[in-house]
Design brief:
Length: 221
């Protein structure tokens, strides 16, 4: 049996220092021992709250291409989001977790649903507390006049960060696109194949001919 491993840490500092990665790498290595071999490894440095996972997209595509199992060290390395888990399960790739070998498709859905419920409860309590503070006349966040310049700077940094992530996503997906296009596939055919492989767009959506064209234009820019 071949395995494609997916390791994730939440911060750039963890990614550079290796904190957390070595433990995950040992967990998947122990799991594979006696069962098969690791064909490829993909490492993501991203928050678990975000669905944009270019390295996960590449791991899924590679696992599907060679008929391997996508192996993660811990279930919480995927995401605490039901829709995200559902999209993974519909990608047509077998998924295994080193910390829970008995996990199946139903259990993955249940665990994601529970985690999402907990996250929503925390969010609801935070919003209620902020609403109560605002009702008492407390100035919150960007509504404070002295923070207007800070807001503009944050907006500029956010735009730059989004552009950088879009460029990185394009760079990660481009090799897959070129592989499909090598046979003379049309933009529509490339989009269909990316969707069939479970590869998402930069915004986590489905591919269309126009989004494939935009990706190729970004790569040429």
């Amino acid at each position: 049996m071949q395995y494609v491993t997916y390791l994730r840490v939440s911060t750039d500092r963890q990614g550079k220092s290796g904190l957390g990665l070595e433990a995950q790498r040992k967990a998947v290595s122990d799991y594979v021992t006696g069962k098969g071999e690791i064909a490829a490894e993909y490492v993501e440095v991203e928050s678990g709250k975000k669905n944009d996972r270019p390295q996960l997209a590449r791991a899924l595509a590679e696992a599907k291409r060679i008929g391997a199992v996508l192996l993660i060290a811990k279930l919480d390395r995927l995401a605490r989001n039901v829709a995200f888990i559902a999209n993974l399960l519909e990608a047509g790739v077998e998924i295994a977790a080193a910390d829970m070998p008995q996990a199946n498709r139903f259990l993955l859905h249940v665990m994601a649903a529970v985690a999402e419920h907990e996250a929503q409860a925390i969010s609801d309590r935070t919003r209620a507390a902020l609403a109560a503070a605002k009702a008492r006349g407390v100035a919150l966040g960007w509504s404070i006049p002295s923070r207007q310049e800070e807001q503009r700077q944050a907006a500029r940094k956010g735009a730059q960060r989004n552009a950088g992530k879009a460029d990185q996503h394009a760079a990660n997906v481009l090799p897959v696109v070129r592989q499909i296009a090598a046979g003379g596939a049309s933009l529509r055919r490339i989009a269909d194949e990316l969707n069939a492989r479970g590869v998402k767009t930069a915004r986590g959506g489905l591919w269309h001919a126009a989004t494939v064209r935009n990706l190729l234009d970004r790569a040429r820019a």
